[in-house]
Amino acid sequence: MAYSGEPILVEDLLFKPKHSLIDQSLHSTMGATTTNGDGFGIGWYGEGAEPALFKGTEPAWNDRNLREIAGQIRTPLFFAHVRASTGSPVQRSNCHPFRRGRWLWMHNGALRGFHDVRRDLVTAIDPGLFPDLEGSTDSETLFYLALTFGLTDDPLAAVARAVGFVEDVGRAHQVENPVQMTVATTDGESMWIFRYSSERQSRSLFFSTEIDKLRALHPEVEVLYHLGDETRFVVSEPLRDLPGAWNEVPESCAALVRNGADELREFQPISPV
């Protein structure tokens, strides 16, 4: 889940919605797995120069510290992730979001055949970035490849080149359909989201309808009057069953989310050769 808008208490995002992310960690209805209990993480922007992270290896629904701090953090931009491991160890460094400088990154999905292609992918990371690679996941590796290909300058092109590179390497190793991903990344001001898979059957991803339109559709829903007009949610699964509230990100698409008009465009990998 990603949130951008007026500063809001984290507990209002994580715990209070009817089908909150905490509920989804136990009862996912659209994910690859029903239970996502291999750790969690939140990232938010506050007073510091860089975003803060809080991660744990316990299931999100069972972490009392998460519930404690969620009632004390108020932020205008927030990332949250519950993890179901695709093979890498359950450890703090493997929990999302990942951070470098002011950038946060979350990934849902997998780089297939990662065990076989990992060396080729990791050795392609810029030597100046490599020392900051902490964990052993395909998700963090994809983040650092995107950084290598220019994420901080042109996020859309950088992710396209990173995905194109992963597909090139995967196919060289006879890996079918190397990439399965929904991704969210941010520099603290704008947010970029991606939905793509090599087989064109990507995991689910939704963005929220503009708040003023939702108020017109559902004047009876009080919580909508406490959200600013620039509020945006990006979620793997809708947080509550509210007709007209959620829009599926189309297959093979990317979007830029920021104050003012959002942009949705086709996403195609770029071979960086």
From TrEMBL:
Entries under InterPro entries matching the protein: EgtC-like (IPR026869), Gamma-glu_amide_hydrolase (IPR052373), GATase_2_dom (IPR017932), Ntn_hydrolases_N (IPR029055)
TM helices/strands, residue ranges: none
Entry keywords, A to Z: Glutamine amidotransferase
Domain of life: Bacteria
Domain annotation Glutamine amidotransferase type-2: ranges: 1-273
PANTHER family associated with the record: GLUTAMINE AMIDOTRANSFERASE DUG3-RELATED (PTHR43187:SF1)
Protein's name according to its UniProt entry: Class II glutamine amidotransferase
Source organism: Nocardia aurea
Taxonomy of the source species: Bacteria, Bacillati, Actinomycetota, Actinomycetes, Mycobacteriales
